[in-house]
Amino acid sequence: MIANLAQGVQAFTSNVFLVTGERTVVVDPGANFDVVDAIDSRVADLDAVVLTHTHRDHVGNLEAVKEAFGVDAWGYDGSIDGVDHEIEDEESVRLGDHEYVALHTPGHKDDHLCFYSADAGVLFAGDLVFQNGSFGRTDLEEGDRQTLVESIDRVLEWVDERLGEMHTGHGPSVNTEPYDHVELASRMARQA
Q1: What would the pLDDT profile of 3-58 be if each residue is shown by its tens digit?
Q2: Range of the domain at 114
Q3: Separation CA 71–CA 39 (nearest Å)
Q4: Strand order in the sheet with 17-19
Q5: pTM of the predicted protein model
Q6: What CATH number is associated with residue 123?
Q7: Domain count, the chain
């Protein structure tokens, strides 16, 4: 089960996905709202926090979640404050009841990861791509348009038309033909 705990929150935050199952995790704890209470109202225990990347809107609540639930955070770059364990490119990570492959996808930020499970048909895209062909900003520090295009293309090498759900860092999740949205983002990022 995947639930967006930030849905309806009127604050500058990323989406916050609670993935329940064998290994209950939060993908990106968000910022500027009481995510601890939101987690606590849905689950008795949390196993880990997994990060797509460490921009402030995605990790502002990180320390509060780690402290409240006694969990560690997993991300690409262990040298960044708050990241306790590194996830290597193409490493397998359990989220809920499924194994996901972690794909290092820089371009928006150097430590950006996407998580894809072929079995579940789910992609956690972070801020790499969004619905309707939108894609992550490249005008921030560590942003690079060509690198972003290459990262989107890399995701396209892993996913296919059977992709059933794409959960993005901002905006609504995509449950109708999400592969087409990733493909469109690849084209749009080249043109912008």
Answers
A1: 999 999 999 999 999 999 999 999 999 999 999 999 999 999 999 999 999 999 99
A2: 2-191
A3: 13
A4: 2-4, 17-19, 25-27, 48-50, 73-75, 85-86
A5: 0.97
A6: 3.60.15.10
A7: 1
